[in-house]
Amino acid sequence: MKQLKKKVNETNPFHNRKMIAIFMYVICFVLFASLFLRFTWIMVRGEVNGEDLRLNVEKLYTRNNVLQARRGTIFDRNGNPIATDATTYKMVAILTDEWSSPSRPQHIEEPRAVAEIIATHLSLNEDDIYARLTQDSMQVEFGNAGSNLTFETMSAIRDDLSENELTGITFDESRSRFYPNGTFASHTIGLAQVTDESDDQLHGVMGLEKQYDDHLSGENGWIKFQRDFFGYVIPDQEIEEVDPINGKDLTLTIDRRMQIFLESIVEEVDQEHKPEYITANLMNAKTGEILATTQRPTFNATTKEGIDQSWQNLLVEYTFEPGSTLKAMTLAASIQEGTFRPYEYFRSGQIQAGGGTIRDVRREGWGTITHLEGLARSSNVSFVHQVEEMGHDIWKSYLDAFGFGTRTGINLPNESNGSNPYESPLQKINTAFGQGIAVTPVQMLRAFSALTNGGTMVEPHIVSEQTEGSEKQPVISPETAAQTLEYLKETVYSEYGTARGYQIDGFEIAAKTGTAQIADPETGGYLSGPNNKVFSVVGMAPADDPELILYVTVQQPELNTISHGSQAVQKIFNPVMKRALKYYSAGDDMQSENSYANDMPDFVEKPAQDAIAYLEENGDAYSLIGSGERVVQQFPRQDMQVDETQRVLLLTNGAMTLPDLTGWSRNDLYRLAELTGIALTVEGEGFVTSQNMSAGSFIETGTEIVVQLASNQE
């Protein structure tokens, strides 16, 4: 009976369900208790797996945006912008529908209608735009014509598309540094770029942009606010905001007119003779202000074309043996020491000194001549006599006093000391005529200023606010400085002077030429060959009381159309010094009756006929690129000042057309190439006489244009 009862109990389904229910209750209780404890723990601690939930929620609904500080503008001496902040836009068309929804299309739905609107704002043909919009691609860009768009152009396109309910066009915004003059003292002005995409902050990476980065940068601000789940800003909230502190502006001593003119002249010589290096620097002889400076190789700061050639600023980093231009210092020292006797005779050709043989450029010499004639002919032998008579130690003290072997302190990065080892007897002698010593162009400018400033050197500088250095002791007396300039006129106006080709009509100048050998690191000697030299000249004018110093060097030019490298130097020196003297003679601060005619208005998105009417009324030369009715790009840009030598270029909407280039200068052509993206080949010198495509031909980015220049074109 007990066994039967036990068996009944074991098979009782009610009993089993009760046990299961109890078990489930226990499990549920444990789970609930665990969840309760977990939630309590999360509520108390506010974190899960080490992550702060409050912080995550704040990140989800709170926006903390950086308010970018404006980088300071760099101006020339007359207030013209040289480097400014800019926000530009690149147009992109979305062709795929992968990112679209039925209610919110993001791609191009009506390519013909979109093409029609875009063609009214950009220098592109409507059919070309339509072809791009119907490609089998995810998205498409529009090349040069659709890049670097201004806010006004971007807004006009966007508004027209929105008004017509057309989709598929987006704009990528980028913050950049804008250099409106293109190739313009580029290594000296430098570059500012976004070096870290995470902060979108511009930083100077070269030249004055780098040297004055802290001054120009400013400090970013920020704004903090909350938004809801759908991204809308929550109303009536307290918004936290810290305003940015904009960077400070920088005003330079550079004169934009002279700089542009210098760039155009140097570019012509560079294209024709393809030298290894060119340096050209114009300085105020009394104050040390650098009025214009350029070099080759260089680059276009706007397009970055050519930047891979060299990052070296030749004004302060290029060291070379100066050759005979340093004889101006030797002459001054020997006059000061009383060892230069101009009418005393010596035997030219060669001399034994310092354990070696020193020769004149003309090995046989010119016979027995006076030291004044030796100066005019740039006789090495004559200057060896000067150093031998004054003594090596005294001559070394003058080299030191003129600053060779020490930095000038000009506020540019990476300035070199140069070198003046002055060790062996032969090396000491060679410094008399600029050999065995390495200098920078800015050191030479500083030394020359002693001759133009009554015997006391001035500090070359390029920033207007740069404070003057400590008072310098005179290197030579005022009388010696004046006498040195008087003798240096002999090199220009004597019948046998080496600088006769540097005469400037209407002005008297003092000058010294140089033809320096180039050291060969492989042999320890010097390179051979007629063009393996550094050809140079320094000119100081007006000679009786110089206000300007122009120093030009051309290293290893091709002697293709000339017989001597000095002729390449003349092609730079003569027109630049003539232009500078004319500006200076017109009045204070180099103003001229032919200076800027007007500030350039903003023609972008304006009717082309209105722009033409304005330019014709002001007597400005202009050219239309395209046959559209609306201006979409222009050069010079808004607020840039225009002088009588500049051609205004107006790019209209629709397809680009090639203007008649007859009479255009090389500088005008480069502006055209920069504006349109054409591939330009320039042959010859002077002004355009012919072009390979007729005026009115359709062009686009990459179209090859070949033009012929001739010097007889007025």
Automatic annotation (TrEMBL):
Ranges annotated as spanning the membrane: 20-44
Gene3D superfamilies associated with the record: 2.20.70.70, 3.30.450.330, 3.30.70.2110, DD-peptidase/beta-lactamase superfamily, Penicillin-binding protein 2a (Domain 2)
Record SMART domains: PASTA (SM00740)
Primary localization class, coarse: membrane
Keywords: Antibiotic resistance, Cell cycle, Cell division, Cell membrane, Cell shape, Cell wall biogenesis/degradation, Membrane, Peptidoglycan synthesis, Repeat, Transmembrane, Transmembrane helix
Top-level taxonomic group: Bacteria
Gene Ontology CC entries for this record: plasma membrane
BP term (GO), one: cell wall organization
Function: A transpeptidase that forms peptide cross-links between adjacent glycan strands in cell wall peptidoglycan (PG). Part of the divisome machinery that synthesizes the septal cross wall. Beta-lactams inactivate the PBPs by acylating an essential serine residue in the active site of these proteins.
PANTHER family associated with the record: PENICILLIN-BINDING PROTEIN 2B, PEPTIDOGLYCAN D,D-TRANSPEPTIDASE
Entry similarity comment: Belongs to the transpeptidase family.
Protein name: Penicillin-binding protein 2B
Organism of provenance: Alkalibacterium thalassium
